[in-house]
Amino acid sequence: MTADKKAIQKVKAEFPPVALPRSVFFRARFVSGSRLRPLPLVQPQKAELVQTLRRFELFAKLPLKILREIASATTVRLYRRGEFLWRRDDKVTDIVLLDAGFVKAARRDRNGVSKTYGLYGPGDCLGLFATFAGMKHSIDAVALNEGLKAICIDAAVILKFAETSPPLSSNLHGQLTRFTEALIKKIEIISAGTMPQRLAVLMLQLIERYGVDRKDDRVHLPISFTLEQLSEIIDARLETVARVLGDWKRAGWLSIDATGCHFSHLDKIRELLVD
Asked: How is domain 36-189 classified at the CATH fold level?
């Protein structure tokens, strides 16, 4: 037996192979571009879909007859983290209501670098702008959470009722305004100044819309971002984002766990924006 083989056997004896679950290779499979297995989901009955649609501002006050027809053209889908709801230049087929989870609107620049233009969460509606403009999707829509739940409605059905239902038409206008506001908020983040200020603006915007369990200067933001996601959104280096978050944690302003971000001193976060 050669010296090399003896060395290999010694290493194997000291460090025996470990059987790892397939789930640990999820990131690698995603990067390689192979197709992911869809998450299992049993489609709800029409009556349940009607109740689900009523929870959204867009459909809250519509007549039951119209809601039933819309429910007939509705499919519920689950997405894995990193999975595309659609890609840039895809044809618009559905209006998407976010029931659980968050989506980033992004597109790649000429150098292939992804840039985030908006964040959307529970209660938001996606795909309206492209639908009413009669254009293809101008951005990618990417799930930020494992198990993101989307209510997908045939866009042609929405267009049909938009012409005959004044309440729906009015609500659609409000949703289009919200889409524009998301782009404005992105501009506010990028123009906020220093990197800690940009991160503070992002967090305060998300807290304003999605924060729960508010008490004094404490609030829970039920979403956890990766360092890569945050660095892309606020246009900063990953190492710098990690350093600033570390400073916030050591100061007792922030803690992060599996349920999201817990802020203990929002007043300190706001003070970062005072020049």
From this structure: Jelly Rolls (2.60.120)
User: For residues 85 and 97, is the Cβ–Cβ distance under 8 A?
Assistant: no
**33 CB burial (10 A radius; 0-12, 13-18, 19+):** exposed
> In this structure, are residues 103 and 148 in contact, taking their beta carbons and an 8 Å threshold?
yes
Of 225, 195, 198, residue with least CA distance to 210: 225
In 133-247 the beta strands, taken as DSSP E runs, fall at 140-143, 148-154, 212-215, 218-221
Rounded to 10 degrees, the C-alpha dihedral 212/74/157/140 comes to 60
Q: Kindly report the CATH number that applies to the domain delimited by 193-271.
A: 1.10.10.10
Q: What are the tens digits of pLDDT across the range 77-125?
A: 999 989 999 999 999 999 999 999 889 888 887 777 777 877 888 888 8
Q: Where are the domains of the chain?
A: 36-189, 193-271
**This prediction's pTM:** 0.69
Q: Which two tokens stand for residue 36?
A: 């992911």
Q: Is the distance from CB of 268 to CB of 197 less than 8 angstroms? A: no
> Is the Cβ–Cβ distance between 101 and 145 less than 8 Å?
yes
The residue length of the chain stands at: 275
